[in-house]
Design a protein that fits this description.
Keywords: Carboxypeptidase, Glycosyltransferase, Hydrolase, Membrane, Multifunctional enzyme, Protease, Transferase, Transmembrane, Transmembrane helix. This protein has about 725 residues and is α+β, with helices and mostly antiparallel strands. Helix content is about 40%, strand content about 15%. It has a 5-stranded antiparallel beta sheet, with helices on both faces. A hairpin with a 5-residue loop joins strand 4 and strand 5. Helix 6 crosses helix 7, helix 6 crosses helix 8 and helix 15 packs antiparallel against helix 23. It is elongated, with a radius of gyration of 37 Å.
Amino acid sequence: MWRNPFRRRKPDYTRWTERDLALESAPWTPLSDLDDDDYGPRAAPPRYYDRERYRSGWRRFLPERARGRGKLWWGSRIVAALTGIFILLVAWLAITAPLSKSLEPIAPPQITLLAADGTPIARNGAVVDEPVQVSDLPAHVTQPFLAIEDRRFYNHWGVDPRGVARALFTGVGGGSTITQQLAKFTFLTPEQTLTRKAREALIAFWLEAWLTKDEILERYLSNAYFGDNMYGLRAASLHYFYRQPENLRPEQAAMLAGLLQAPSRLAPTRNPDLAAQRYNLVKGAMVAAGYITQAQADAMAVPQTDVRTRNDLPTGTYFADWALPAARADSEMSYSRQTITTTLDSQLQAAANRVIQRAPLGGAQVALVAMRPNGEVVAMVGGKDYSQSPFNRATQARRQPGSTFKLFVYLAALRNGWSPDDRISNQPFTEGSYRPSNANGRYSESISLREAFAQSSNVAAVRLLNEVGSKAVIETARELGVTSPLPEGDPSMALGTSTMSLLELTTAYAGVAANSFPVEPHAFPAGEGGWFDWLLDGRGNLSSSDRREIEGMLRSAINSGTGRAATLSIANYGKTGTTQDNRDALFVGYAGEGDSRLVVGVWIGNDDNSPLGNISGGGLPARIWRDFMQAALGASAAPPRPTPSPDPSGPVQPQDVPDLQDIPLGDGRRLIINDDEAVLSTDIEGVPLEMRIRDGEFSLDIDEAAAQRELERRVEEAAQQ
């Protein structure tokens, strides 16, 4: 019976006979001359199945002429193949890697921010200074960099396998040499790929061949990023310690060397504790490298920074000042001139500027934030005049939100089973140490939650917080993205006595508008996440009934409550806020549908926290909110999306500058002339008003709340007389 000669069968060598051994040493036998008995159960395999060939079974896949080749023959062929592959790889890298550019001076990195339509809105270059010369630097200045970054810098040819192994096993020092890091600067991208690493190594060899070790070290120290937008050792030493690098003390040089691993995170101006921890690690590396003794390391205390302002140039816009740190953090390891598109809408920003400029603010300051429900900030105003004060009151100022905080109180109540039609006492407090009062001085036996929210009843809000519990209110605020401190057990929290930024407050309202929270405000378009990201993002939302009820209450606050001055012809939702003694006046809300929906917050106040006089949340802030929404959404409430500009490298367009159509008339009066209307803003006896002529029709807008207060004041004065 024929058997497959290629079947792998291990013979039982222990049972071999003399005949078997004879067959083992016999010459090869053609398969056609073998009998069936030769393949019997006790028969030894033919020469084709000797033990050596059984153990090297892979040879059966080779051609007949190659089965008897020795190890030397195979080794030479493998080396030749690997050499050919290496030559091809080097040739490909040489063509694609910028080898010639690696020897050129490194240009300071620059970031250009674009609006969503491609309009350049800001450019920001790095802070650089004169390059350093290694020969002029004391040994204690260069030694910390060598110890922590590349201990064998003077003993390798650009790539150090021993350094990589040491970094893997000890966690001290980086796997890349100083030459490789310098090569990375020339690549103009911080991507982490094997291709980039291969090109990096090739450029490192190239640099080692054409530059001396000191020249490489000089380039590295003169161009490395040290955080706080400082590039190069000279700029960093002047920034952090206000001294030239040639005069740095050993502990100061060690501190600077520790920043290179993560400059933005380890900068002592931002995270002094992390910088100190890294500083101690550098000292340990110096001891291990033999540069200093352990006693000297113990005597080196953490150096104190001496940061001084040195020709800090603002970008020219509040939005850009807020966005640039994030842009710089995302590209801190890149030395390219980058152009980044932001979420800012030039048309909406211009509309915000026009509305702010024509508002009768007097000496008060103003802030406005407009964003999409997903957190994309499309317009930002941080003050009346950026050139006079670049302080961003939308993101940096922390003020009391007033009654706009009541959103969290009433939403917590709805989530705990309350209904907008449920009633609560609206009587004044007569007991206890904390006795808030209603701003309008009106009280009643009881009031529905819907009406209490619309009329902004203070006593009802405090009682509701006591009923629901401050813990539930804080939990609701946290879920909507509020991170500012909120004191548990404080009844005044219901009236918005805890401070937060306008951006933080507006973002919380965006969570309600999107019914997906918390919302993260951002200046750059976010990438589209997959279904898996959506499944694990941990975002919350309101039930359909809770959302319907809270939006109904927000609408009632505008249509029949304190926010009537913000009424639009389309569905709108919002809440007024006025703090004690009218120190802050706010209006926060949203309007529009779908992708055109906007969430806008407006704040008015004085920088010294002094009272505003007659300005309240339902007055001027509500009118600013309304005017911006009308300009932004228009009658159709569906503005077209911006189209990219073909020339993002053009001149920067100023965003926070006065509108030439805004004509000041003195005494607080202003004449604003737009394409379709003329507006005269003034105030009479302390009551702000606006006279409008649009399409041949005249209208007069008066701050009813301010007029009511002025009337009550005069009645009181007349009664006293």
